Amino acid sequence: MIARPEQLLLALIGEAAIGYPAPLLAAIGHPVMWTGAAIAALERRWNAGSAVRRKAMGLCLLVLIAGIAAAVGWGLERLAGDSIAVAVVILLATTGLAQRSLDDHVRAVAAPLLRGDLAEARAAVAMIVGRDTDTLGEQGIAVAAIESLAESLCDGIVAPALWFLVAGLPGLMVCKVVNTADSMIGHRDTRYRHFGWAAARTDDLVNWIPARMSGVLLCMAGGGGWRVMLRDARHHASPNGGWPEAAMAGVLGRRLGGPVRYDGEAADRAWLGDGPAPAAGDLKRGLWVYRRACLLLWIGVGGLAWLL
């Protein structure tokens, strides 16, 4: 097997070039879909009873799916012989890294927004955010897409890449199932407050370093944003989400955050950054900052591979 940083660099480049090979793997589906289906099924059965029982069962769910992911990753690494290791890693990494798919999804929002087609832009942004989108105008759509772009740099790229370096395919796969669990049950509403506690806290831990790395990458890619990131990141409700979002706000010179609605309920969020709210053109600018940040990640991994 080749050195792990070299594997990661090949995986990052391969995923950016080909994305997820949907036609090839259509028969088995995306691993995130399997994880999501398992979480949904177990949640329906286990999320009941007292607060203590819900917390305990939520922890059991997390340990179970993370253990399965680690075992599958370990098994796949053992099965991949030297002659096919590179191909196996690149193929599997397309399910754990999301450079290409994130770029595709955000471009799908930017294109109609630049044309003034708010209905199509709302439908596209609803695919990548959890907030209510039915009444969003141009600025609201741009805010939602830029925030998702910045935060997903951490969740979908930097975090799985870092955990791959630390623990190979098991690390990458555990990172992805933790992130999926947090997105599904790691909420503070009545249904998930206790059951999703373990998923939310574990996701905070898994993404603590990657979030700060993502903020640094965005500031480097945009040639600024440091002051806003250091000033405003701590005001975000998440201990991690504020770092890449505040960095992107600072780089673009625009204001993110602010009030939104989730399932019809208003949520009062802190503001991040200075200046006016972003418009359609700022979303296109944000995409270029994101792409340069991904390139910087490649360079960093390549440098590590050269050193090792």
From TrEMBL:
GO terms for molecular function: ABC-type vitamin B12 transporter activity; threonine-phosphate decarboxylase activity. GO terms for biological process: cobalamin biosynthetic process. The keyword GTP-binding does not apply. It holds the Pfam family CobD_Cbib. Converts cobyric acid to cobinamide by the addition of aminopropanol on the F carboxylic group. The chain crosses the membrane at residues 20-42, 54-74, 289-307. Pathway: Cofactor biosynthesis; adenosylcobalamin biosynthesis. Signal peptide: none annotated. It is a multi-pass membrane protein. Keywords: Cell membrane, Cobalamin biosynthesis, Membrane, Transmembrane, Transmembrane helix. PANTHER family: COBALAMIN BIOSYNTHESIS PROTEIN CBIB. This is Cobalamin biosynthesis protein CobD.
